[in-house]
Write a structure and sequence with these properties.
About 50% of the residues lie in helices and about 10% in strands. It has eleven helices and four strands; from the N terminus they run ααααααααααββαββ. The chain has a four-stranded mixed β-sheet. α11 (about 230-240) links the parallel β2 and β3. α1 (about 25-35) runs parallel beside α5 and α6 (about 115-135) runs antiparallel to α7 (about 140-155).
């Protein structure tokens, strides 16, 4: 892994982690090709960046977050059964579709307001998804089940909302892992200089892989220890309510040197909540 140069967020495509001729691919092509979805994402970004001075919440964030989420999906499903599978609703392809759609659409509620945007998002996403799912699934009951999983994933991406499915936890991790300097460069250039923008500018790359000790390792490479704030206040906070807290390791590299998070936790206090009931392990 290159720990000194950031990857190009603009060139990332979630298509990389989607199998050919799958339902997940059909949904991806539908969402990325939908004028309504793309307009919502662009408007969400105007609200976030232009009006509020926040980080990117538009089409690029949707793509990068989905890319991260699908990468995490492929890693975590080596150990855990997605709830779609464990509860007898569908197969692995259906579960990936859930993660993809929930992650891609999680921020469209920003077109209404930042406050409670996760609630607005489910209202806007439901009609976009309902007709497409009814076309994709012959059984209308299954289409509704899949929709319910997606809506939970969108709603539960909020930091303080506990995820109740593996799929929603993966969506939350995908969202939280988009914290490299490319996401915050515009508000910083427009004069927003605070701990959030400065810490994000320190982060070059976030890398997800299967770990030896836990199912998932997230490595955050930065060129300045200020980036630790992003890890503590954003990523760890999301992981704490993802339902996956006990199954994820976080490594921090500062100019290639490993930083032990426990040594700096006293600097950035983040309230952690309890994890939900245990996940469904594969046999």
């Amino acid at each position: 892994m290159n720990t000194t140069e950031s990857y190009d967020r603009q060139s990332i495509r979630a298509r990389e982690f989607i199998e050919p001729e799958s339902r997940a691919l059909e949904m991806y092509q539908y969402l990325t090709g939908s004028p309504k979805v793309q307009s919502y994402l662009r408007t969400a970004n105007r609200m976030a960046v232009s009006r509020l001075g926040y980080t990117d919440h538009g089409p690029v964030h949707a793509e990068v977050a989905t890319w991260n989420a699908l990468k995490a999906f492929d890693i975590l499903t080596q150990t855990f059964n997605p709830n779609v599978v464990a509860e007898g609703v569908g197969n692995l392809d259906d579960a990936k579709l859930v993660v993809l759609a929930a992650t891609y659409l999680h921020d469209i509620g920003m077109v209404v307001h930042r406050n409670e945007h996760y609630q607005a998002a489910i209202q806007l996403a439901a009609p976009i998804l309902e007709s497409k799912l009814e076309d994709m699934y012959e059984d209308p009951a299954k289409a509704t089940d899949i929709l319910s999983f997606i809506l939970h994933g969108i709603y539960a991406h909020d930091d303080d909302t506990q995820c109740l499915t593996l799929e929603s936890g993966i969506t939350k991790i995908g969202d939280g892992c988009d914290m490299t300097k490319g996401r915050t460069i515009v508000p910083f250039q427009q004069g927003k200089v605070d701990i959030h923008s400065v810490s994000a500018l320190a982060i070059n790359e976030v890398h997800l892989e299967k770990a030896k000790t836990k199912p998932l390792r997230i490595t955050v490479a930065m060129d300045n220890p200020a980036g630790v704030f992003q890890v503590e206040a954003v990523l760890e906070k999301k992981i704490s309510t993802s339902g996956l807290r006990d199954h994820v390791d976080i490594d921090v590299l500062v100019n290639g040197d490993r930083l032990v998070l426990s040594h700096v936790k006293r600097l950035f206090r983040v309230q952690m909540s309890e994890s939900p009931e245990s996940l469904s392990m594969k046999d």
